[in-house]
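new request in #modeling-help
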Amino acid sequence: MNRREIILGGASTAAVLGTTGLHAQQPAEVLIGAVYQMSGASAQVGVDAQHAFDTALDVINNVHDLDLPLAKTAGLPGLGGAKVRVIVADHQGDPQKGRAEAERLITREKVAALIGSYQSAVAVTISQTAERYQVPFISADNSSPSLHRQGLKFYFRAGAHDEMFSKAMFDFFDALRQKGHKIETLALFHEDTIFGTDSANAQQKLAEERGYKIVTNIKYRANSPSLTAEVQQLKSADADVLMPSSYTTDGILLVKTMGELGYRPKAMVAQDAGFSEKALYDAVGDKIEGVISRASFSLDLAAKRPSVGKINELFKARSGKDLNDLTSREFMGLLILADGIDRAKSTDGEKIREALAATDIPGERTIMPWKRVKFGPDGQNLDADPVLLQWVGGKFVTIFPQSAAIAEAKWPMNT
Amino acid sequence: MASQELPGRDSSAVAPRAEAGGRERERIDHDASLGSFARRRHRKLAVAALTTVAIALLPLVIHDVYLQNIIVLTLMYAALSQSWNILGGYCGQISLGHAIYFGIGAYVSTLLFVHAGLTPWLGMLIGGVFAALVALALGYPFFRLRGHYFTIATIVVAETGLLLMLNWDFAGGAQGIQIPYGPDSWAHLQFARDKLPYVYFALGFALLTWLVTFLIEDSRWGYWWRAVKDNAEAAESLGVVVFRSKMAAAALSAFFTAIGGSFYAAFVSYIDPDSVMGFQLSLLIALPAVLGGIGTLWGPALGALVLIPLTELTRSYFGGSGNGLDLIIYGVLIMVIALARPEGLTSLFGRTRKARATPQARANPEARANP
């Protein structure tokens, strides 16, 4: 320990003594820093996140008759009813700026914890900064598996990461196999940036482990003007399941080309992204009745978890749209964080970290399809089950896992 | 100017003496202008020394890490833009692909550190040399292109580099590379919370690039580069080796840009292709020099001094609203500066000095005529 650390340590001890000693009355307000992209290409994500946080703050700071953490009380009872406030900062999709903003929120705004950040690259620098200042970071909507493998103590993620998403698909195949459906061969079809490549790599690994044969694995450029040659290959391979990892425009092109070449896949299980976009179904939804896509969230969960519908109403009143994969996780992330601060009865980073590490919220008390919220030593919630949705009659229906499903899967989609 | 007045005055005197006197006076004037040139150079050095000391003392007043972070970034962009200015400003070869050299610096030092445990101090030198070699290899075909075509080629090459890094798994691909979290160390250039070491490193880096530019201004290369910038054909006819001049400027510029990349990697401790090789970065490297005064000694530093605190502060205090107010303020200010000072911010100082110098200039002919 060098001199600076001693001084720093002394200063922080003094600060802690100061807050706990002099202001034993508890702070009137608990600040949380949210770091999102508020300008540029993905600014809409940040703006939506803000609505999700406002909805969560409404639930935390006011009395609501909902079976969610902190809903029935006003403010944080553990801190004498202190209200929670969120300060939003803009990282512009730049890891360096994300780091600078996290630092500013911690040192100048004195936030008790951080939440963020959509882009995984920015989450890397935010999580490192949080670790350096010993302030917890809730990674609400990042899905890169590398994040919880950094060996950080102040990192927490309640949602699923990409490998868990792919695993859900294969769990679904296994379940179908047990019911006597024949699933032997898979065709992978993925775009060539990080999203598609990672997805295909994970699928390939899982297929080998669980005894599925990949008959063709096609990598294509996302902005390709034509997919005719690729679809021809898919048609001749005619696998039991076609598994696309595509964005929106290329997904639309895939479906259109399939129609032109007369290829009707026996089944289609897609990796979110383009196949969860409204735009794709507006364009070609009628051609792919029965397509299945993975997701983190589904509105028809309201049938099993009544708070989903009510929270969606609160959110819709603010944003004019329904909750989606991202906003649902952002809402829940802030609730979980506030619950941790409440149980910590303190705004001290280490105490909040301990409380978060001890989190155990049953799935019924969330708006997510998760079994429960309980963090592993790496900060990852292993019970964050994703769901599979099937496009039936012009809307999505949850078909897997059993605990969240409201209908049986229609399988195969084309005979 | 003085020499033009000489014949008129000398015509009244006896011819041979007048001629000798004229020569003498010419020499004196030459010496005097050399002297004033030297004085100007000394004054520049003194200003730089004072500025450096002032910035070095700044952290004693500013303890806030957020503000210190802005100081680091300002100095880093001043140095980067100064490096860009060597090729873009003095030699007149506008590059909008300097991100590739920045990226090379960042990746070489980080890969060497993460995989071979090599200290970033050595890594940044290796990265710098590598970047200079790449600049030479690229310069060989590209310096046959002129004006806009050269600029377009630099953009294309930087984009190619970006795609390469995005698909190169060993270098982390699109995921990027993280520098492992360790104890504070000067050898590894890693400091968890302390910003002071980065302030001083960035200050040293900015001073170094300034000094190099200062030395270049009065060197043969410096004159050659400016000649190439003004008119390559005329320069060639006067014996300037145009092609080699451009190559030397490119290599030097790339070397220092790569050092900046290595520093960035150590400072942020995480790099990914988009943040160290993106087109945005190429623009950010060129912008301070353009705004401050392209091809001037103080331009890049002045430009960075205005731009970086402006972007950082507007983003932090208006960016959270999500309505783009920060970018509007930023854009409007740049437009105002560009309209009011088309030659760059340094012209602000140039005019005041000229204004101060005018009475002297008027007094001078008399002073010369009297003795």
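bot summary: DSSP finds 15 helices and two strands in chain B.
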